[in-house]
Amino acid sequence: MEDVLRPLTVVGGSVALTLALGWAADLAMRRADAARPDTPLWGLLRRCRIPLQVVLLTALLRGTFDRTKLKIIDEHSAGIGQLLSLVLIAATAWLAIRVSAAIVESSYSRYAAGARDAARVRRVRTQVTLIQRVVTAVVAVVAVAAMLLTFPAMRAVGTSMLASAGVLGIVAGVAAQSTLGNLFAGLQIAFGDMVRIGDTVVVEGEWGTVEEITLTFLTVRTWDERRITMPVSYFTSSPFENWSRGGAQMTGTVFFQLDHRAPVEEMREKLQEILKNSDSWDGRAQTLVVTDTTPSTIEVRALVTARDADAIWTVRCEVREQMITWLRDAHPYALPRISTAAAPVLEEPVLEEPADGRSRPTLDK
Description:
By secondary structure, the protein is an alpha+beta fold. It has twelve helices and ten strands. The strands form three sheets. Strands 4-3-2-1-5 form a five-stranded antiparallel beta sheet. Strand 7 (about 280-295) and strand 8 form a beta hairpin. Helix 11 crosses helix 12.
């Protein structure tokens, strides 16, 4: 009977204690979240309940499994202990990643709630995202190294590796030159404020918004919802347009090819009317001037402003559409036309016989 009760007591007690501690921790987090609704940290830490319970249960089983006095456990105690150690290391890494993510996300949420500069918020968001990825990578590498060092054979290998660390470092650096270059480029982008999540950029002739930045690649979402994935090293070695740099406000132009008789002054008044009725125009500036002329047409440029790239596109489309419609209905003569005329017809020459017997062409009058 004791052979049955002892394992049940050890395993059941570990599970019961783990559930009790997890419930108590979750209750404490809920009360703290209710007491401080302005601090999202406590609510985010509730996501750590499952990894916390795995850590507690594995630690309890790791320390008490040999007290079950079961024959099969005594025969494989080394393997079971090894397995529980590996699970404990992995669960601890999982918990550390969850806790760090909660702290970083809470800090960003509090900053974003009180900040008024959208560009600075995007910069901080980019930095905290990359910081979290670095922390995750470091914790994962340390956890894998710790798991490997639990094997006796790997300890000897580790000693040999430390002895030749200089040579291995040089070889690894040469072999992973591109990867390391992207890694350092990602850190440079994060803390150099070159490009941020949410920025409007033009790369390789494509216009879009930066959707994701990692340590090795960057994703741009284009206006037609395509995703362009590029190595981050591109943005540190090649020129690109960042329309959100230094402020999101933008200036746009609309060109018209019109007849010389186009009513330019009335077009200026119509432009003001169109912009006053537009929700996307920010009211900063608007002009309309003749910028060029050809023998058959004139070029009229309308200049407008808006709060960001999306709004400037909308304003330009509204001005182009409504101005052309107004010209077509009220001043159709202002639209360009191609004048054509019939070509002159020359009469065929008539051949006359000269006195010397040679023929020569003459025009029949």
